[in-house]
Design a protein that fits this description.
Blueprint: H1 3-15, H2 20-32, H3 34-52, H4 60-74
Bound molecules: zinc ion (ZN).
Domain Putative zinc-finger: 3-36
InterPro entries: Znf_put (IPR027383)
Protein name: Zf-HC2 domain-containing protein
């Protein structure tokens, strides 16, 4: 799984709507890719912050910022 594929599936992973076999791939990518691990941790923290304030959905803006950030980090490392 590439970072691009990972990021495309991350929302489903957090929503719990991801297919079982894809979930395994997502977890494996997280273990292997420190960049995406950071994104996941940041996203999880963001979700938890918003959950406390009853704003559960991660805004498109926040998600796009996260994805842009990770893509720029991955670029040049041959992982995206
Ligand atoms: Zn990655």
């Amino acid at each position: 799984m590439t970072c691009t594929e990972f990021l495309a599936r991350m929302t489903d992973y957090f929503d719990g709507t991801i297919a079982k076999e894809l979930e395994a791939e997502v977890r494996q990518h997280m273990c292997e890719c420190s960049h995406c691990e950071v994104v996941v941790n940041t996203t999880r923290q963001t979700i938890e912050i918003y959950r406390d304030t009853d704003v559960y959905e991660l805004s498109t803006d926040t998600r796009e910022r996260l994805i842009a950030n990770i893509m720029s980090k991955c670029r040049g490392k041959g992982c995206a």
